[in-house]
Design a protein that fits this description.
single chain; 380 residues; alpha+beta; four-stranded antiparallel beta sheet; globular
Length: 380
């Protein structure tokens, strides 16, 4: 079996890295320090074509294959883009826009996708609730049909892009008596009466990504805003797992390569006891461990991307393994990078501690590591 990127894919990756270093990196540290979302960078990502890379040209996309789309995420991480912006990008492009494309009506696609792909509007997905995280079926938010409208009541939490989203894809119970089969998906626009977002949460990492609660109080939306059919929402949400385990993980893979490159350069230039610290075994061991993780994570993530791109069903076991490996084992390499930089690694100005903080979301968001272990153990 031969596994290799095409010449065009490798050239595209270089272009994404060049774009990110020019248009995004100059403000990364400031945005992280101030918990500021970079609207300018986000719109430039839209102009560059990243926000709708895999979506059809008819809506403003580039119709790129899945592997190329995942490669773009890796390039952003490798360029040094913070985890906050790449998290917002993933929630916008894959959890919101892709779901609308795959399950929405043509009228819904024409209405929302062009502005989402261009970056003129920002999207989010509302699934998690205060009492319904891993246990999706226990959600309490309801959408009761009344004539030609649905009335939503309930709340969501930990919603990426929540405070800034123009378009929210919300999952709610249309049949509260049912579990998974009672969940449906709806489009709720910013400014709809009865729909409010809470203030941005103060997070450990991914600080430039705005995260909040969403509240629905007798929020009436047109029946035409139902995405797909009633009762199919859970299946839609589960299909996003394929993106969670590939495109949303790829910036973390790229981020470790970025940390490795910086660590190698530091190890060559930093001298102690009359020689570069890269000549000491302890430093060599850290660098080798980082490289091993980066290569293993890359193969796991691109296996999911390749299967999805080929139209093959993504095995939930393989997806869970990829998510667990990247989520749990990312701490080691990011911690090694911080320790290798010593006191500089502990200071915000050098950016290494940001990578460490951003990486702590990996075993939590998109399905916790404990849930991945449950899936793995059940399937084997």
């Amino acid at each position: 079996m031969e596994f290799a990127f095409t010449k065009d894919q490798l050239m595209f990756k270089k272009e994404v890295i060049r774009f990110a270093r020019k248009e995004i990196l100059p403000r990364v540290e400031e945005n992280d320090r101030n918990h500021t979302f970079d609207f300018e960078a986000f719109r430039k990502m839209g102009e560059f074509g990243l926000l709708g890379l895999h979506l059809p040209e008819a809506y403003g996309g580039a119709e790129a294959d899945v592997v190329t789309t995942v490669l773009a995420g890796e390039a952003l991480g490798e360029a040094g883009v913070d985890g906050g912006l790449t998290l917002s990008y993933g929630a916008h492009s894959f959890l919101c826009a892709d779901t609308l494309f795959c399950h929405g009506t043509e009228a819904q696609r024409q209405t929302y996708l062009p502005d989402l792909i261009s970056g003129e509007k920002i999207g989010c997905m509302g699934l998690t609730e205060p009492s319904a995280g891993s246990d999706v079926a226990s959600m309490k938010t309801t959408a009761i049909k009344q004539g030609d409208t649905y009335v939503l009541n309930g709340s969501k939490t930990f919603i990426t892009n929540g405070p800034i989203a123009d378009v929210a894809l919300i999952y709610a119970k249309t049949d509260p008596e049912k579990a998974h089969d009672g969940i449906s998906a709806f489009i709720v626009e910013k400014g709809t009466p009865g729909f409010e977002s809470g203030p941005p949460m103060n997070k450990l990492g991914c600080r430039s990504s705005q995260t909040s609660e969403l509240f629905f109080s007798d929020c009436a939306i047109p029946a035409k805003n139902l995405v797909g059919e009633e009762g199919t929402g859970f299946l839609m949400a589960m299909q996003t797992v394929e993106w969670d385990r590939s495109a949303l993980l790829s910036p973390m893979v790229g981020g470790i390569n970025h940390a490795l490159a910086r660590s190698v350069a530091y190890a060559k230039g930093r001298e102690q006891f009359g020689r570069p610290i890269g000549t000491f075994y302890a430093t060599k061991e850290k660098l080798a461990s980082m490289k091993i993780f980066a290569e293993a994570a890359k193969l796991l993530v691109y296996r999911i991307a390749w299967c999805k791109g080929q139209g093959k069903p993504v095995n939930h076991l393989e997806a869970a393994v990829a998510k667990l490996f990247v989520g749990d084992w990312l701490l080691g390499p990011s911690n090694d990078a911080l320790l290798l930089h010593g006191g500089y690694g502990y200071c915000h100005e050098y950016g290494v501690e940001r990578m460490f903080r951003d990486g702590r979301l990996a075993p939590i968001g998109g399905g916790t590591s404990d849930v991945q272990k449950m899936i793995i153990s059940k399937m084997i």
